[in-house]
């Protein structure tokens, strides 16, 4: 006799609930802050051409900042989900495996040697740096033959991250750019402008779209290379495209908000706990949860010590480190 399990909540309802949560946090983030604004003023600023100090604050400061938080949170969460699926490593994260540190070091080099560089140049530098950082980690792990264990990858990532961050700091000190470099290191959204978003957001959107289109292939790849090949998948091509997507998402995020870790680690685990192991569901759920998380963290950083601001990277790290230790304690097993 077959026993049927109680049917779980459909994925569409969970995604819609995440979207409603995002709308609510976004509305709250637009209202609260060092300057007092009301929900009516936010509505007028978004729907009319009304002028005034509060309107300018909402349109030119808060709105681009919160949009940046949404896209960066989604980008880093998806990048982490892809990395965990590709490597079958539950500890994989763009910030832990050298991508964001590589982008950070490349950004410091660009600021030092190309002081007049525009945002396009900085973005390209971050993409190259992210690729170099990830390649260094994978190269170190590949020196010893055998399976790439999660802990070997994390140890290699920690070493490469420390090296690249040290390079970035040394360049900042030598070229007297420490202040500029540290602003990126703090992982802040302060000063995000519409011009920056115009350059960065298209790269992130392209990366997210490709990730969604390849989510089925990622699910197959997450089982094993043998299964993927047996099902007729061109694993080398899929991995190459997904690797480029990770570099796009991580590099663009660093170019916008600086070095940020743990989002790509935490969010995919939470998404898997909610929707299962199918990446057709994990990728979109990671995007919506990552956007929620980053938006909430930025709002918390702006409001917990008014009129001063707590770096959002510090808030993310305080939440992410216990989660990382919990996953390590479980032996690298994913949440279930």
SSE arrangement:
Layout: H1 11-31, H2 39-47, H3 53-87, H4 99-113, H5 119-142, H6 150-174, H7 178-185, H8 194-213, H9 215-223, H10 225-230, H11 235-257, H12 263-275, H13 279-303, H14 312-329
Helix pairs in contact: 1-3, 1-13, 2-3, 3-8, 3-9, 3-11, 3-12, 3-13, 4-5, 4-6, 4-7, 4-11, 5-6, 5-11, 6-7, 8-11, 9-13, 12-13
Please report the distance between the alpha carbons of the first and last residues.
27 Å
| Assigned CATH class | Mainly Alpha
For the record, the count of structural domains works out to 1
Please state the structural category.
Answer: mainly alpha
User: What is the CATH architecture descriptor?
Assistant: Orthogonal Bundle
Please tell me what the overall shape is.
Answer: globular
Q: Low-confidence runs (pLDDT<50, min 5 residues)?
A: 1-6
Mean pLDDT rating: 84
Strand content is under 5%
The total of beta strands comes to 0
User: What level of helicity do the residues show?
Assistant: over 70%
State the order of secondary-structure elements, H for helix, E for strand.
HHHHHHHHHHHHHH
Radius of gyration: 20 Å
Q: Which sheet architecture does the biggest sheet show?
A: none
Number of helices: 14
CATH topology: ABC transporter involved in vitamin B12 uptake, BtuC
What is the H level of CATH, i.e. the homologous superfamily?
Answer: ABC transporter involved in vitamin B12 uptake, BtuC
């Amino acid at each position: 006799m077959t026993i049927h399990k109680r049917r779980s909540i459909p994925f569409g309802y969970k995604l819609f609930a995440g979207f409603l949560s995002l709308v609510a946090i976004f509305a709250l983030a637009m209202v609260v802050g060092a300057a007092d604004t009301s929900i009516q003023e936010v509505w007028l600023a978004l729907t009319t051409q009304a002028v005034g100090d509060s309107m300018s604050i909402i349109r030119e400061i808060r709105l681009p900042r919160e949009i940046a938080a949404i896209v960066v949170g989604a980008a880093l969460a998806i990048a982490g989900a892809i990395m965990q699926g590709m490597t079958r490593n539950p500890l994989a994260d763009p910030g832990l495996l050298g991508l964001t540190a590589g982008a950070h070091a490349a950004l410091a080099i660009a600021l030092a040697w190309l002081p007049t560089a525009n945002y396009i140049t900085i973005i390209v530098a971050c993409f190259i740096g992210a690729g170099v950082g990830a390649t260094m980690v994978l190269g170190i792990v590949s020196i010893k033959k055998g399976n790439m264990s999660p802990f070997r990858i994390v140890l290699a990532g920690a070493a490469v991250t420390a090296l690249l961050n040290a390079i970035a700091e040394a360049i900042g000190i030598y070229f007297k750019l420490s202040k500029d470099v540290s602003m990126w290191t703090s992982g802040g959204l302060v000063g995000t402008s519409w011009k920056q978003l115009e350059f960065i957001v298209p790269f992130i959107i392209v990366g997210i779209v490709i990730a969604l289109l390849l989510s089925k292939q990622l699910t197959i790849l997450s089982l094993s290379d043998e299964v993927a090949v047996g099902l007729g998948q061109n694993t080398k091509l899929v991995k190459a495209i997904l690797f480029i997507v990770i570099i796009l998402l991580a590099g663009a995020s660093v170019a916008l908000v600086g070095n940020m870790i743990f989002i790509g680690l935490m969010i995919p685990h939470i998404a898997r706990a909610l929707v299962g192991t199918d990446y057709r569901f994990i990728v979109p759920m990671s995007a919506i949860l990552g956007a929620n998380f980053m938006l909430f963290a930025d709002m918390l950083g702006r409001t917990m010590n008014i009129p001063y601001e707590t770096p959002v990277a510090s808030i993310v790290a305080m939440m992410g480190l216990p989660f990382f230790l919990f996953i390590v304690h479980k032996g690298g097993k994913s949440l279930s």
